Amino acid sequence: MDGTTWAALTVALTVAGGIWTWIAFGRRGAANGLRALGFTLLPAAAWLTGTLEMVVDIAGSVTGWATGLVFDVRTWSGVGLAGLAVLLFLVSGFLRDRQLGRAQRTGRGRAAEPGALPPASSGRAGAKGSPVDDELADIEALLRKRGIE
User: Fold this and answer.
1) Does a structural domain hold residue 114?
2) CA distance 128 to 36
3) CB under 8 Å to 40, separation ≥6 — which residues?
4) Quick one: what percent of the chain has pLDDT higher than 90?
5) pLDDT of residue 122
6) Residues 124, 141: Cα–Cα separation, whole Å
7) Separation CA 23–CA 17 (nearest Å)
8) Using one digit for the tens of pLDDT, what is the confidence trace for 8-17?
9) Residue 55 and residue 1 share a domain
10) CA atoms of 120 and 139, how far apart (whole Å)
């Protein structure tokens, strides 16, 4: 497109924005009217700085990419592979959780559990005879009774 076409596009967008601004001031007040005026001035600013052509080129490139996405078998193969990868990540996480749960039920992997206490000595307290050891022995007996070791 030549410069005259860009100028005509800018004038059309600015006039449409001006109508929108007038309606916004009348119906919704000054705050919305000023916001509309800001949007109205953007096409003129974009044309004067030369970015209007850039925006149109970017929009055309995105449109071309989107139409290529819809009709290209190679692209859909990539989308399918990405979906398969996500599915494999989800399934592997599920299987890993099941394996960890099974290991905890059978008692394997006990040493690797965070916060696991070392096995306490059974029987009475040691040489000092502290009452804390007696309480721990009672708690240990309750846990053992419930199958939690």
Assistant:
1) no
2) 83
3) 14, 17, 18, 20, 21
4) 40
5) 52
6) 12
7) 10
8) 999 999 999 9
9) yes
10) 11
Four-residue CA torsion sign, 124, 128, 129, 133: negative
Q: Which of the 8 DSSP states describes residue 115?
A: T
For the record, the structure tokens of 125 come out as 């307290």
| Residue the block writes with tokens 């030549």 | 2
Residue in the block written with tokens 């044309």? 47
Q: What is the pLDDT confidence band of residue 114, given thresholds at 50, 70 and 90?
A: low
Backbone angles phi, psi at 89, to 5 degrees: -60, -45
Which of 122 and 45 is assigned the larger pLDDT? 45
Whether residues 1 and 67 share a domain: the answer is yes
Same domain, 65 and 49: yes
Same-domain pairing of 88 and 148: no
Write down the H helix ranges in 29-146. 30-49, 51-71, 73-106, 131-145
Q: Do both 100 and 142 map to the same domain?
A: no
**What's this model's pTM, rounded to 2 decimal places?**
0.42
- Is residue 37 within 8 Å of 80, Cβ to Cβ? no
